[in-house]
Task: inverse folding
């Protein structure tokens, strides 16, 4: 493990309706969208390329691996979301069933949500009113939790908004921002459903060298939040465990998260043929990304950059 600060690079989300999700991220979160692109129509020989500079560019390029991925590609459409126009933060993936051509619905407990930093140029109170006017599903809550926990003594509350597939997105005012960004300044952390929080905590501690910043149990609600941070104190991953009234865990897993990528780590593993791997800069086609891919305790793919 190296000493570089671990940060969340991007998230690949599976969605039920790609066009609907694109509208949400454009209209509500003001992100730049590149796509959609039908993977089956692209040539083989590499990865999807998107030239992005100064907020301009076209998604173009190629998807690799006409092998085990070939059938999936024929029924998959994707779009890239960027907050800065220089690199992508979110990859949206829509798949259809080969037998019926019907869009696959997102189900199960995988990614609970994620958090983004709001630019200082955005007044969160005015944003709340704008979301109300847009009839978006949102709430105020304590930072780093689930949007339902609100305490009066918390100095700064986050604004939580749900995407079309019911994932919770936490919007956090970025105190260190210079105010030049128009809306979102980037990703902060990802919240994952986990079946056994202690086993997942052990995995991320041993494999990625992360430390526990806090471990909160809401026994009356059957909720547990474990906030993991790098050695430099940067929160990157939050583990979210749920238990039934009888005390048994609610199992994590299902369909909804393709993978997520983090920088600053050197996880051991082999490249997944299941996770969609993307470069944004065509100039780097001949370079090796240095990424490796590992699965965590619940089977989530992690790209280590």
Result:
């Amino acid at each position: 493990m190296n000493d570089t600060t671990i940060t969340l690079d991007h998230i690949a989300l599976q969605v039920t309706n790609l066009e609907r999700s694109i509208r949400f991220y454009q209209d509500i979160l003001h992100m730049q969208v590149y796509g959609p692109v039908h993977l089956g129509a692209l040539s083989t020989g590499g990865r999807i390329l998107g030239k992005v500079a100064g907020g301009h560019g076209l998604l173009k390029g190629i998807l690799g691996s006409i092998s085990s991925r070939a059938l999936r590609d024929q029924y998959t459409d994707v779009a890239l979301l960027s907050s800065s126009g220089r690199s992508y933060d979110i990859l949206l993936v829509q798949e259809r069933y080969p037998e019926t051509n019907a869009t696959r619905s997102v189900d199960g407990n995988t990614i609970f949500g994620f958090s983004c930093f709001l630019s200082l140029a955005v007044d969160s109170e005015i944003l709340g009113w704008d979301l109300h006017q847009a009839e978006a599903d949102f709430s105020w809550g304590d930072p780093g939790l689930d949007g339902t926990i609100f305490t009066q003594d918390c100095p700064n509350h986050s604004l939580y908004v749900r995407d079309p597939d019911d994932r919770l997105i936490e919007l956090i005012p970025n105190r260190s921002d210079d105010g030049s960004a128009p809306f979102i300044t980037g990703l902060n952390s990802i919240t994952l459903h986990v079946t056994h929080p202690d086993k997942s905590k052990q995995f991320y501690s041993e494999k990625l060298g992360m430390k526990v910043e806090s471990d909160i149990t809401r026994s009356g609600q059957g909720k547990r939040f474990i906030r993991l941070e790098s050695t430099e104190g940067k929160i990157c991953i939050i583990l979210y465990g749920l238990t039934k009234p009888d005390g048994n865990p609610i199992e994590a897993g299902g369909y909804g998260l393709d993978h997520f990528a983090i920088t600053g780590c050197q996880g051991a593993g082999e490249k997944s043929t299941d996770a969609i791997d993307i470069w944004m800069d065509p100039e780097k086609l001949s370079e090796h990304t240095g990424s490796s891919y590992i699965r965590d305790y619940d089977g989530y793919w992690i790209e280590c950059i």
